[in-house]
Write a structure and sequence with these properties.
The chain is mainly α. Helix content is about 75%, strand content about 0%. The termini are close together.
Length: about 325
C-alpha cells in the first residue's frame, strides 16, 4: 500500500508541473496590465515601468515562470498585486469556507444518491422508480444559481428564516456560521444529487443481475441483507469515482454559488483575481485546485479496494 501511494505521488509530480506551465501561460493571455490596474488609468508611464520592475513583469516570460516555480516549491505563491497579502494566506483563509460547503454538500448528496438510487433500482420500472428518476432528471435540468436564488427568495426574503447576505466565520460564531451555510449546502446537495442518483441506480441494476446476488437470495437472506452486504459494495464503486470528480470540480467551480450567497470562498477569490488582473492570485487558485484534483483522485483509488474486493492496489 505504501509503495502504491508513493508511486501515485511520483506520477502526480509531472502532472502538476504541466498544469503549472499551462496555468502560468494562460494567465498571461488575460487582457490588461496588472500595473495599470493598480495605478489607475491616468498613471504615469514611468510609475508603470517602475511597478513592472518591482513585480518582475519586465523580465522575459520564461524567466518569470522559472522564478515563480522556484517560489512555489518553497510554498510561496506570491503576493496579491491588489491587496498586498500573501497568496498562500488568502487561499487557506478562503479554502475553509469552500471546503465546508463542498464537503457537506457532496456527503449529503452521496447519502441521498445511495438510498434513492438503490431503492429505484430495487423497484425498477415501478411508479417509485419513475418518481425517483423523474426527480433526478428535474434536478439536473435546474441551474444551481437559479435554485439558490429561489431558496433565498423563499427562506430568506419571504419567511425570514435564514440570512440573505453576509457570512460569519466559524472561529467567531459557529452557530451563526451554520445559519449562513444552510442554503448554499442545500442548493449544492440538490444540484449534485441528480447525477449521482442516476449513476447509483444504473450500477445497482447491473449488480442485481449477477449470479452471486441470485445465489444470496436463494440461501434465504433477507432483501435488506442482500442489498447492504452483496449489492452496495460493488454498486458503489462507479459512483465513488463520480463523487471524486464532483469534489474536484466543485472546489474549482463553486464561484456562482459563492456569488449568489456572498460567501468569501475560493471561487469568488478566483473571479476577483481575473477581473483585477491579479496574476499571483489566479495562478495560486488554479494550482491549488489542480492539487486538490490529484489528492482526491488518489484517495478515490485507495478507497476502491474497500468497496470492491476484486480491485487491488497491486
Amino acid at each position: 500500500m505504501i509503495g502504491y501511494i508513493l508511486r501515485r505521488l511520483l506520477l502526480a509530480i509531472p502532472t502538476l508541473l504541466i498544469v503549472a506551465l499551462i496555468v502560468f501561460f494562460l494567465v498571461r493571455l488575460i487582457p490588461g496590465d496588472p500595473a495599470q490596474v493598480m495605478l489607475g488609468e491616468g498613471a504615469d508611464p514611468a510609475a508603470i515601468a517602475a511597478l513592472h520592475a518591482e513585480l518582475g513583469l519586465d523580465k522575459p516570460i520564461p524567466v518569470q515562470f522559472v522564478t515563480w516555480l522556484g517560489h512555489v516549491f518553497t510554498g510561496d505563491l506570491g503576493t496579491s498585486v491588489v491587496t498586498g497579502e500573501p497568496v498562500t494566506e488568502l487561499l487557506f483563509s478562503r479554502a475553509e469556507t469552500t471546503a465546508i460547503v463542498v464537503l457537506l454538500s457532496v456527503a449529503l448528496a452521496t447519502i441521498i444518491a445511495i438510498v434513492a438510487g438503490m431503492f429505484a433500482a430495487w423497484r425498477r420500472d415501478t411508479r417509485a422508480d419513475l418518481a425517483v428518476m423523474g426527480a433526478a432528471s428535474l434536478v439536473l435540468a435546474v441551474p444551481s444559481f437559479w435554485l439558490g436564488l429561489l431558496l433565498l427568495l423563499i427562506f430568506g426574503v419571504w419567511l425570514h428564516w435564514l440570512p440573505v447576505v453576509g457570512y460569519v466565520p466559524f472561529s467567531e460564531d459557529p452557530v451563526a456560521a451554520l445559519t449562513f451555510l444552510i442554503l448554499p449546502v442545500v442548493t449544492l446537495t440538490i444540484s449534485e444529487s441528480g447525477v449521482l442518483i442516476r449513476m447509483m441506480r444504473s450500477s445497482t441494476i447491473d449488480v442485481l443481475r449477477l449470479d452471486y446476488v441470485t445465489h444470496a437470495r436463494a440461501k434465504g437472506l433477507t432483501e435488506r441483507t442482500v442489498l447492504a452486504r452483496h449489492v452496495f459494495p460493488n454498486a458503489f464503486a462507479p459512483t465513488l469515482t463520480l463523487v471524486g470528480l464532483t469534489l474536484g470540480r466543485l472546489f474549482g467551480g463553486i464561484a456562482v454559488i459563492e456569488t449568489v450567497f456572498t460567501l468569501p470562498g475560493l471561487g469568488r477569490l478566483m473571479v476577483t483575481g481575473v477581473l483585477s488582473r491579479d496574476y499571483p492570485v489566479v495562478q495560486g487558485c488554479l494550482l491549488f485546485t489542480a492539487c486538490i484534483y490529484v489528492v482526491v483522485n488518489l484517495i478515490v483509488d485507495l478507497l476502491y479496494p474497500v468497496f470492491d474486493p476484486r480491485v487491488t492496489v497491486e
